[in-house]
Amino acid sequence: MPASPTRVPSAEIYGFSADRIDGSPQSLADYAGKVLLIVNTASHCGFTPQYKGLEDLFQRYRERGLVVLGFPCNQFGAQEPGSEAEIGSFCQKNYGVSFPMFAKIDVNGDDAHPLYCHLKQQARGLLGSEAIKWNFTKFLVDRDGEVIERYAPATAPAALADDIEKLL
Q1: Which residues on adjacent β-strands are paired with residue 69?
Q2: Most exposed residue of 14, 88, 110, 123, measured as fewest CB within 10 angstroms of its CB?
Q3: What Pfam families does this protein's entry cite (predicted)?
C-alpha cells in the first residue's frame, strides 16, 4: 500500500503583510502555526456587537493557538468612517478588543488588499461569488495556512466554536 501524501503547508498566506491599527507593519508570517479568524469589521454596523463575540473567542482559545485578526473596512454603507485612532479607541472602550486590529483596508474592487484577494479566491461565498457582501464576513484559516471556511456576516462568532475546536 502506498504511503499517504504528506500535506505541505500553504505558505502563501504567510507572505502577506498589513499595517496594524497603530501604523506599524505586521507580517502574517508571525502567525504561522496559529489558527486564524480573519474578519472585515465596522464600528457603525448592525453586526458591530459581534466584536464582543470575537473577543470572547479570542480569550477562550488564544492559549491554544487562535488569533483573531480584525480588518476595518468602510466599503459597506460607509459604516467605518473613523480614523485608525478612533476605531481602535471605539473597539477597546466598547468591546474590550485585545485581538490584533489593522489599519482600514478595502476588501473588494481594484484597491482590495492582496490578503483579501487571496481569501476570496480560496473560499468563495454564496453561489461561488468572490465578492465580500458586507461587514463581518469571517475566514477561518488552519495552522498550515489553508483557508478552511468562509462565514456570512450574520453568522455569530459563537457559532464558529466547534469549527475552531477541530483546528486547535
Answers
A1: 38
A2: 110
A3: GSHPx
Task: Summarize pLDDT for 63-94 with one digit per residue, the tens.
Answer: 999 999 999 999 999 999 999 999 999 999 99
Of the candidates 45, 73, 91, 117, the residue annotated as catalytic is 45
End-to-end CA distance of the chain: 30
Residues pairing with 40 in the sheet: 71
Is the full-model pTM beyond 0.85? yes
Q: What is the pLDDT of residue 2?
A: 42
Calpha distance 168→157 (Å, rounded): 16
Greatest Cα-to-Cα distance within the chain, rounded to the nearest angstrom: 60
Q: Which residues pair with 19 in a beta bridge?
A: 25
DSSP per-residue codes, 16-31: -EEEBTTS-EEEGGGG
- What is the Cα–Cα distance from 150 to 36, expressed in whole angstroms? 12
Element (H, E) at 111: none
Active site residue 91: no
Q: Residue 9 has what pLDDT?
A: 44
pLDDT over threshold 80, residue 6: no
Tell me the three cell numbers of residue 112. 482590495
